[in-house]
Amino acid sequence: MAENAGTSKLALARKNIVRFFKDIRTELKKVIWPTRQQLINNTFSVLLACFVIGMIIWIADQALDQIIRLTLAK
Predict the structure, then answer these.
(1) Greatest C-alpha distance within the chain
(2) Closest C-alpha to 15, from 3, 26, 23
(3) Distance of alpha carbon 34 from alpha carbon 68, whole angstroms
(4) Chain Cα centroid distance, residue 23
(5) Looking at the whole model, is its pTM more than 0.90?
(6) Which residues, in sequence order, are CB contacts of 42 under 8 Å at separation 6+?
């Protein structure tokens, strides 16, 4: 009786895994993939945004560093 329960659990797990991958395949067919030019433009936008934010953080860090140095120097 214990073997039957184990077999049914294994069969159920296998069925769930197969269904999971079928669902993934179905969902990927619904995706609207970007064109090459859209991908290039979006990548450039993201890199530019990262650079600008990085510069803002660097400037703030430098300013705070100078403020702390001036405060502790006295």
Answers:
(1) 82
(2) 23
(3) 47
(4) 21
(5) no
(6) 34
**5-62 tens-digit pLDDT:** 557 888 899 999 999 999 999 999 999 999 999 999 999 999 999 999 999 999 999 9
Q: What is the DSSP letter of 34?
A: P
Does residue 42 contact residue 34 with C-beta atoms inside 8 Å?
A: yes
> According to the model, what pLDDT value does residue 55 have?
98
Identify whether the C-beta of residue 47 lies closer than 8 Å to the C-beta of residue 40. no
User: What tokens does 8 get?
Assistant: 């049914």
Which amino acid makes up residue 18? Answer: V
